[in-house]
Design goal:
Shape of chain A: globular
Number of strands of chain A: 28
CATH architecture of the largest domain in chain A: 2-Layer Sandwich
Radius of gyration of chain A: 27 Å
Low-confidence stretches of chain B: 82-88
CATH superfamily of the largest domain in chain A: Aldehyde oxidase/xanthine dehydrogenase, molybdopterin binding domain
Helix content of chain A: 25-40%
Strand order of the largest sheet of chain A: 3-7-1-14-11-12-13
CATH architecture of chain B: Roll
Distance between the termini of chain B: 36 Å
Largest sheet of chain A: 7 strands, mixed
Shape of chain B: globular
Helix content of chain B: 25-40%
Largest interface: A-B, 57 and 35 residues
Number of helices of chain A: 20
CATH topology of the largest domain in chain A: Aldehyde Oxidoreductase, domain 4
Low-confidence stretches of chain A: 1-5
Oligomer: heterodimer
Structural class of chain B: alpha+beta
Mean pLDDT of chain B: 86
Strand content of chain A: 15-25%
Strand order of the largest sheet of chain B: 2-1-5-3-4
Number of strands of chain B: 5
CATH superfamily of chain B: Beta-grasp domain
Radius of gyration of chain B: 12 Å
Order of helices and strands of chain B: EHEHHEEE
Number of domains of chain A: 3
Mean pLDDT of chain A: 96
Structural class of chain A: alpha+beta
Strand content of chain B: 15-25%
Chain lengths: 755, 88
């Protein structure tokens, strides 16, 4: 249970970040920075076609090239059954994942990996890639979700029969599954409505845009043990997927995580690691593989693009009577778009009687989608929050006010089933309304938009070890790559429990053989779930410290209490003992039973949901369609901010990515389905000079299931920006934008009445 | 009796459209067992699909032994990721 309101010594403090110096001095080792003696360079042969049957692969010329040590294709992987694994951000079908790492029978998108080589130099590896002869039968392709759903669309998987339809279809299609969530009767709700708005929207797939490309170094030893150093969001995820794809035992693989240069969900899958392991096994040499930026875009997962229709009805007093959504999400080449969460998040901020949400997961000839901050939710929120804004305008009700009148709160039954426990949506809306930004004056051609968002946040399995060093310092080992400041949070929570200064706690991210299992870094779970394990391990350690003090004082353990980093007699009746510091007890640990420390493994339950509300001011250049974001305020319930600086950074990062999604980012394909902009020059993410300082407001409605009240933080801030920007553009221009990105030519066409 | 709330999708497939079912069970393990007995295939699907369970509004990942109160509300939700069906 959350602790009573009290002053914390470290929780909530802006401590110095443990990863800061290594990053600013360039000394941290990222995925591409590892090297081993005798290491080979691995490179991938990728499909130039969006959809084609592989007739043959001839590797003879490549293998004959001096210096080439190994070539692998899908034939080097076992054929896996169609079965789900639950080690990534969502369930992943191993049949699909294996074929995504190396295509078998068919290539399904431009950039799909077909084969890989390992050679003694980068140049030789490039030459070997060019010598591999792949014979293709080019097939018709489809990259648009609506076109992929047509009966006459090219079929990607001849054995795909839509799941979730009863009776199950007998004809294959590109619709992997249909999902639905229904509460009440929307027909009745629309009958009661005084105003109804229905609009269709589209969004484009966008990449997570992490700066560090996928990279790994692997080594298969003569003893049958393999070691992997890689940049990922979960060393245990990499281990499990590699073992499954290669048909090896998990115990044969040890994975050490590198420092990570961004992931945002995109590094919750494997691409290179199983391929590199197969090359290393074949060659008997270590192998290093690093994607180019173009390979990242062509071969790794963006999030879904979508097509959707949203319909909302409300009475004159602003009470929403019905909400209806039809969501169609692109999954890329294999089923697995985040359609389920998208459907569930769509109307989650609101307490509605009548809701109908139907979703489709649709395969197209694009890279397989990967998770991206709050997978699925931002897309649905773009549609729903745009329509809520339009309803508010029609009814002449303040945009925050209409949301307050319909806001979900504790006890609200969601359209996907559960009632909300303690949540902070109302408090978040109130904080936004109070903020001076909401009432600040606007200039000519300027507009203000408001939108909200919801994300579940998750818990799951985590482990932590706390070891007390002989000088009284401590090491906290956990198994989650630090992508958002989790090491600082782990150190803070451990210091709080142990009662020592935070700079005496060294947090580390351990490899798969050195700490207990941790589910990956994703779902905004680490500070909540792994933090819970740290607190529990810290408490066990404190108990042991009290035991040791009791031995030193020759009293019973229950006669000792722990306060502010010191063992003290529980009462004056115990005896007249000077308090023992943690360092003093540690110094005598050999005499009292040996090293002091504790480990905890748990399955953290009761993650608290996150709500966000964003205010965006922007100016539109009506001659060019260019949008300049002038001011941006992001308000969010975080439960309790363990390290406010990192929390603010997460909120700012999510808002910045959402603004990029709204205004600029898109994949551009030619008529053959080949990606035309696989680089940051042509795929335009916002940079610092594009954005104002993003103001953040931290709302704290503690999650009662965490010792310090933590809720996940990293995902929900990307949910509101697209609608906040669209609503601001409408406010500035009168143009309701329904397609992302709202780039200058698109907006200019709308302003000129051509959109 | 605990109240189990099913999605319309699950109810259409297994319970003839009934979205709320009362079960006499003390833990999630027993809830799933009761559902499988009453609606063959439903408990198995819940076990295999990696569904998330909400007990009185709180989300549980892969629960098994978690207690369920006599007045509890139990909801089964799809996993929070994408994912093509394992069975094709």
């Amino acid at each position: 249970m959350a602790s009573e309101a009290k002053e914390f010594k470290w929780v909530g403090k802006r401590t110095i970040r443990p990863d800061g110096i290594g990053k600013v001095t360039g000394r941290d080792r990222f995925g591409a920075d590892f090297a081993l003696p005798g290491m080979l360079v691995g490179k991938v042969v990728r499909s130039p076609h969006a959809h084609a049957r592989i007739k043959s692969i001839n590797v003879d010329k490549a293998l004959a090239l001096p210096g080439v040590k190994a070539v692998v294709t899908a034939a080097d992987f076992p054929v896996l059954p169609s079965e789900a694994q639950f080690v990534g951000e969502g369930p992943v079908n191993m049949w699909d994942l294996s074929r995504n790492c190396l295509a078998r029978d068919k290539v399904l998108y431009d950039g799909h990996a077909v084969a890989a080589v390992a050679a003694v130099s980068s140049d030789l590896a490039d030459q070997a890639v060019a010598l591999i002869e792949v014979s293709y039968e080019v097939l018709p392709h489809v990259i648009d979700v609506d076109e992929a759903m047509r009966p006459d669309a090219p079929i990607l998987h001849e054995d795909m029969f839509t799941d979730g339809v009863n009776p199950k279809p007998t004809k294959p299609s590109n619709v992997a599954k249909r999902v639905e969530f229904i509460k009440g009767k929307v027909e009745d709700g629309f009958e009661k409505a005084d105003v109804i708005v229905e609009r269709s929207f589209t969004t484009k797939p966008v990449h997570q845009g992490y700066i560090e490309p996928h990279a790994c170094v692997v080594n298969c030893g003569e003893d049958g043990q393999a070691t992997v150093w890689s940049s990922s969001q979960g060393q245990f995820m990499v281990r499990a997927y590699c073992a499954k794809i290669l048909g090896w035992d998990i115990s044969e693989i040890r994975v050490t995580p590198s420092e990570i240069g961004g992931g945002f969900g995109g590094k919750t899958l494997v691409y290179l690691e199983p391929v590199a392991l197969a090359l290393s096994k074949k060659s008997g040499r270590p192998v290093k593989m690093v994607m180019t930026r173009a390979e990242v875009f062509r071969g790794s997962g963006p999030t879904s693009g979508a097509s959707m229709t949203i319909k909302i009805g409300a009475t004159k007093d602003g009470r929403i009577t019905a909400g209806q959504a039809l969501l169609k999400y692109q999954a890329g080449a294999f089923g697995g778009s985040p359609i389920g969460p998208g459907c569930m998040c769509s109307f989650a901020p609101y307490d509605l009687e009548n809701v109908e949400v139907i979703g489709y997961d649709v395969v197209v000839n694009r890279p397989r989608v990967a998770a991206y901050r709050a997978p699925g939710a931002p897309i649905a929120h773009f549609g729903v929050e745009s329509v809520v804004d339009e309803i508010a305008k029609k009814l002449n009700i303040d945009p925050i006010e209409i949301r307050e009148r319909n806001a979900a709160r504790e006890g609200t039954q969601t359209h996907f089933g559960p009632r909300f426990p303690i949540i902070g949506f109302v408090e978040t809306l109130k904080a936004a309304k109070r903020h001076p930004h909401w009432k600040a004056p606007l200039g000519e051609n300027q507009g203000r938009g408001f939108a909200t968002g919801f994300w579940f946040n998750i818990g799951g399995e985590s482990s932590a070890t706390v070891n007390i060093n002989e000088d009284g310092t401590a090491v906290v080992a956990t198994g989650n790559p630090d992508i958002g400041g989790s090491r600082a949070s782990m150190a803070i929570m451990a210091a709080e429990v142990l009662g020592i200064d935070v700079d005496r706690v060294r947090p580390i991210v351990a490899d798969t053989s050195s700490v207990g299992y941790c589910f990956l870094t994703g779902g905004s779970r680490v500070t909540f779930a792994t933090g819970m394990a740290v607190v529990e391990a810290g408490r066990k350690t404190v108990k042991e410290l009290c035991n040791r003090a009791a031995k030193i004082w020759e009293v019973e353990p229950d006669q000792v209490v722990w306060e502010d980093g010191f063992a003290r007699p529980a009462s004056s009746n115990v005896g007249d003992f000077e308090p023992l510091s943690l360092a003093a007890i540690a110094a005598k640990s050999a005499r009292t039973g040996g090293p002091i420390g504790a480990s905890t493994s748990l399955n953290a339950q009761g993650a608290g949901a996150g709500f966000a509300a964003h205010i965006c001011d922007l100016e539109v250049d009506k001659e060019t369609g260019k949008v300049t974001v002038l001011r941006y305020t992001a308000v969010q319930d975080v439960g309790r901010a363990i390290h406010p600086g990192y929390v603010e950074g997460q909120i700012q990062g999510g808002a910045a990515q959402g603004i990029g999604w709204a205004l600029n980012e898109e994949y551009i394909y030619d008529d053959k389905g080949r990606l035309q902009n696989p680089g940051f020059l042509d795929y335009r993410v916002p940079v610092a000079s594009d954005l104002p300082m993003i103001d953040t407001v931290i709302v704290e409605v503690p999650n009662p299931r965490h010792p310090y009240g933590v809720r996940g933080v990293g995902e929900v801030p990307i949910c509101p920006p697209m609608a906040a920007v669209a609503n601001a553009i409408e406010n500035a221009t009168g143009c309701r934008m329904t397609a992302l990105p709202m780039s200058p030519p698109v907006l200019l066409a709308a302003i000129d009445g051509e959109g | 009796m605990a109240r189990v709330v099913l999605t319309t999708e699950l109810s259409r497939r297994f319970t003839g459209g009934k979205t709320e079912i009362e079960v006499d069970a003390g833990s999630i393990r027993h809830v799933v067992r009761e559902l499988e007995e009453a609606y063959p295939g439903l408990g198995k699907l819940i076990e295999e699909a990696g569904m998330i369970v909400a007990i009185d509004g709180e989300l549980y990942h892969d629960p098994f032994l978690e207690p369920v109160g006599a007045d509890s509300e139990v909801c089964f939700l799809p996993a929070l990721g994408g994912g093509r069906s394992a069975v094709r």
